Amino acid sequence: MEGYEIIGSKSGAGSPVARICVLYDVLNQIALKGFLHPYTVSEEEVTLPLLEHQDLTKSLLLFDRGYPSYWLMYLLIEKQTHFVMRAAKNANNTVKNFLVSEQSEITVEIYPPYASLKKLREKGVDITKHNSSVRPLIGLQT
């Protein structure tokens, strides 16, 4: 398959690999929108095209590891979209500190790293200091 990387196995046979990203309505059991990309394209890169032109204000989006990023949280909050993002245990100091605490959930204020500010500006979002923080709820799955 042109444009898709071939990954070999121990037997020497190779298979093309791809990344599939789908916006799926679990209530109605229907895919609303989806894309097939080369595996080398990151989850972050495929997310915005997937969410464009969708009214998600009454939705709950679920993201697996690989998706959590400040700029994506910021844009989802700005669009009044509810979301849950699974993060690695070592994603950042806030997550690490939460995991060793006695709390079952916390709301924190997260400020953007430079790379996220740059990405937001590239996407046409003018972010200033007074509106730069996001307040996600961090909780444990039990």
Helix share, percent = 10-25%
Strand arrangement, major sheet: 1-2
The total strand number stands at 8
Strand content: 25-35%
Number of helical elements: 4
Stretches with pLDDT under 50, minimum 5 residues: none
State the secondary-structure class.
alpha+beta
Total tally of structural domains = 2
SSE arrangement, N to C:
EEEEHEHEHEHE
Instruction: Give the integer mean of the pLDDT values.
Output: 78
The dominant shape is globular
Distance between the termini: 42 Å
Our Rg estimate from Cα atoms comes to 18 Å
Q: How does the major sheet shape up?
A: 2 strands, antiparallel
Briefly say what this structure is.
Helices cover 25% and strands 26% of the residues.
Describe this structure in words.
- This protein is of the alpha+beta class and 142 residues long.
- The protein folds into two domains: 1-50, no CATH class; 55-142, no CATH class.
- It contains four helices and eight strands.
- The chain has helices spanning 43-51, 70-78, 93-100, 114-122; strands at 6-8, 14-16, 18-25, 30-38, 60-63, 82-85, 105-107, 137-139.
- The strands form four sheets. It has a two-stranded antiparallel sheet with strand order 1-2. The chain has a two-stranded antiparallel sheet with strand order 3-4.
- A hairpin with a 5-residue loop joins strand 1 (6-8) and strand 2 (14-16).
- The model has no long low-confidence stretch (mean pLDDT 78).
